[in-house]
Each structure stands twice: as structure tokens, then as C-alpha cells.
Design brief:
Helices cover 43% and strands 24% of the residues. It has 105 residues and is α+β, with helices and mostly antiparallel strands.
């Protein structure tokens, strides 16, 4: 059972959880974001476990489970999302540089 959501994120209720172990639901997302966020979470040394699942192919959401050693789960999630943004910005920058170089040649 999950809480009502206003935006893209809600927290699953009905399970015993604390700041260090939480299941979140990201609405309107699928494997693309789920796998990238899971990867970035796992790279964080403060994260003990991170996994995601798509409940059903016809449902437009993912369940994201995060367990940390001593950092609140939402802080770890926000850091992972910031890391994804940084990687995307770097890739776009490299593409722009390659395009400029190609146009000069």
C-alpha cells in the first residue's frame, strides 16, 4: 500500500521502515531511469542495498528499494539523481565539443 502521490514520488506504507530502509515509488518511469538510479545508488559507499522493479509492464511506475548504513534514503536518492544529472551534462558537453571539432574539419 503506497501513500497518495502528488508528483512523481511516493513512499510505500504498510511496511516497517525508517530513514535507513525505504521503498519508494517513482510514477511515470520505467527501466531506463530505474537502472541508472540503481547504478548510481550502488556506487555510493553509504548505500548498503539498492534495487528496483517494475510491478507490471502495463503500470507506468517503478518500485525503488534503498537501504543505507547511516544516511537517510532520500538523501542518497537525491545524491544519485544529482550524479545522473552530472553524467548527462558531461556527455552533452562531449557531444558539443565533438560536433564543433567535426564542423571545423
Amino acid at each position: 500500500m503506497e501513500t497518495e502521490h502528488v508528483g512523481k514520488l511516493s513512499i510505500v506504507e504498510g511496511e516497517e521502515h525508517d530513514d535507513l530502509c525505504t521503498t519508494l515509488v517513482l510514477h511515470g518511469e520505467g527501466h531506463t531511469l530505474g537502472n541508472v538510479v540503481r547504478h548510481m545508488l550502488i556506487k555510493n559507499p553509504a548505500v548498503e542495498f539498492a534495487g528496483y522493479s517494475v510491478p507490471h509492464p502495463s503500470e507506468d511506475k517503478i518500485n525503488l528499494r534503498i537501504q543505507t548504513y547511516d544516511t537517510p534514503c532520500l538523501s542518497a536518492l537525491y545524491r544519485a539523481l544529482d550524479d545522473v544529472t552530472e553524467v548527462c551534462d558531461h556527455v552533452l558537453d562531449q557531444i558539443d565539443k565533438a560536433e564543433e571539432k567535426f564542423k571545423k574539419e
